[in-house]
Design goal:
Elements: H1 3-15, H2 17-22, H3 28-33, H4 35-40, E1 41-43, E2 51-56, E3 59-62, H5 70-73, H6 78-81, H7 84-91, E4 98-102, H8 110-114, E5 121-126, H9 129-142, E6 147-151, E7 164-170, H10 179-189, E8 190-202, E9 215-216, H11 218-226, E10 231-236, E11 242-248
Parallel strand pairs: 4-5, 4-7, 5-6, 7-8, 8-9
Antiparallel strand pairs: 1-2, 2-3, 8-11, 10-11
Bound molecules: S-adenosylmethionine.
S-adenosylmethionine binds at residues 64-65, 73, 102-105, 108-109, 125-128, 131, 152, 154, 170-172, 175-176, 182.
Length: 252
Amino acid sequence: MNKRRILILYSLALLATVGARAGMPDTAAWAGQDQRNRRIYETRARHDPDGIGKFYMGREIAHVMGHEAAEWLERADRADTELPHQVIKQMKLKPTDTAADIGAGTGYFTFRMSRVVTQGKVYAVDIQPEMLSFIEQKKRELKARNVVSILGTEADVRLPDQTVDAALLVDAYHEFSYPREMMESIVRSLKPGGRVIQVEYRGEDPDVPIKRLHKMTVAQARREMAAVGLIWKETKDFLPQQHFIVYQKSRP
Ligand SMILES: C[S@@+](CC[C@H](N)C(=O)[O-])C[C@H]1O[C@@H](n2cnc3c(N)ncnc32)[C@H](O)[C@@H]1O
């Protein structure tokens, strides 16, 4: 698929955003009362149309990809452009691990992880019930009994504390409308020494044909993860267009 076609498809996928946001859990009341949010986030009237006008650590947060674009997540050429087998291999999961796919979408990575953690489980977390319905249907088709779908909120993954060995975030973090709270809840869900693996389109590379707010630089990603106490371990560049960044929760 050429770059222009990729850009058009991705733009169409993002156009589905508005409808999806309408169906999301309303955390505005909660957010409005939280003094801390006002210190962490900044709202600007002039902003990128691909963003929500809310800024975190200097970065504008992107619109959420709506469930109407589920097809985009399952596109055939993804295996060549995003090398999912390599992503799973590089995660170095153990068969007994508990993994989490945060912002799981249609479960493109969930089911690939479930085939590795055969004696463990995979939590698939998303805020769009339609995405979870898709995952539940696929779970039945594949008889993937070790997949557990979880409806999170915009600020909380709703996972049990200290249970997760590895949390994967593919092309999702830049959409989190409460990134600080989301990452704090992910860190709570990790076991001591548990890992976060973040995959994002490379923000440093103008040749990656993805909208600016839907890419991230390593420097920005590391700053934001350090803000919740995650320790950067390594950045691997085996993917054609994305960063693969590994962080760890400290051990007491
Ligand atoms: C671009 S899709 C990527 C889906 C999947 N990770 C993949 O690579 O196929 C981003 C997903 O993140 C989800 N998302 C956005 N904000 C979220 C949040 N705060 N908590 C959980 N999921 C969220 C969206 O609903 C969407 O399904």
